[in-house]
Amino acid sequence: MSDTRTKLLDAAADIVREQGAAGASARAIAARAGVNQALVFYHFETVRKLIDAACRRAVDEAAGRYREQLAAVTSLVGLLDVGRELHRQERDAGNVALMAQLMSGAGRDPVLAEAARYAMDVWVGEIEPVVERALHDSPLAAAIDTVGLARAVSASFLGLELYEGVDPQGAASALDAVQLLGVLVEVVDDLGPLVRLALRAKLRSLRSGA
Amino acid sequence: MSDTRTKLLDAAADIVREQGAAGASARAIAARAGVNQALVFYHFETVRKLIDAACRRAVDEAAGRYREQLAAVTSLVGLLDVGRELHRQERDAGNVALMAQLMSGAGRDPVLAEAARYAMDVWVGEIEPVVERALHDSPLAAAIDTVGLARAVSASFLGLELYEGVDPQGAASALDAVQLLGVLVEVVDDLGPLVRLALRAKLRSLRSGA
DNA sequence: GTCTATAAGATGATAGAC
DNA sequence: GTCTATCATCTTATAGAC
Description:
The structure is a homodimer of 210-residue chains.
Chain A: H1 3-19, H2 26-33, H3 38-44, H4 47-71, H5 76-93, H6 95-105, H7 110-134, H8 146-166, H9 168-191, H10 193-209
Helix pairs in contact in A: 1-2, 1-4, 1-6, 4-5, 4-6, 4-7, 5-9, 6-7, 6-8, 7-8, 8-9
The structure holds a DNA duplex (18 and 18 nucleotides).
């Protein structure tokens, strides 16, 4: 692969991370890459397509970096631990911010929307098997949709990342609260059949009540 | 208050909701308001200050619309019910999208960052007393930071809103999963002292283990 | 593949007539 | 308060020399 191509891909991802998709102009990206502005269009046709390609590559790389760690996780608390480590490292790397930028830019750009959907699918695809494994012997397994939970976890981390950009201390306290909820689920797991019965009764009463 | 001023405020909020902060140019806003472009600068000095004012007003109004409903909530499941109703209505009104746009634009604009922080503080201020009330008699009350939980709930809904813009069906299944977690917390509440003991033991073992 | 030059348009913001 | 006209600057994208 051409050197200029990869320089542009790297620079595009960096600019989106730091300035958002709105700030990622052909000139800004080319300047960062140290190449001529016209090469953006020679190699990628449009700015949008460059951003799309750069973000997909960044998401693939980031997901790959955590595949091993996630493969070793067997509990929800373990998942949240990796999530917190991931959050800390990728916040510095800017990769969660990059996803948030894709999502927020999706409204006015179908190419970004496609990239955003791809990014979310990649992460949900990584996390879902972990959730499945963590809840395998749990009394919750029958009640909960693991794909839905994986999506909720991914989306929540996305929201927390956005929040962190605005109020780092607030976001830290929010992460603590989420972690405690994970512990709670494990406690419920430990209590086993007792909870299964109570949960079933609760769900039944809620459904008939609503 | 001048008619033009309010027209511009309304138009600015609408454009941010529909096109994002990046698409909210002086010309676009003025066209939507049906007034001359130069009036943006006469009334608000800069485009940024107009967007800031418009978003703060929109957040205040949206929070006010749910104050009564939130005041009647006494459980976490009830909070999530209101949250889901709020999510459904404000998604159509675009007010959660507006917040997400503020957050994602915060990186490259300190004025937006201030507005974003204000928006988050407003919603956390509304939700925190509800969480406090919902957990008042709970075995979890001693362990959990209610402000942190309120922040986590707000940030998670923000992430879910972003996700919804990209994959509506995926977001719906994520919301279902979150709702089930709320039910779980209530089940734990019903089990009372038993859980309190188990939770304490778990937290102790986690702390000594780490 | 890479460069310069340039077209064609959008942007924030201002000056000055009314 | 509101308008027109305008500046300087930014944008995407292309044509054509090398």
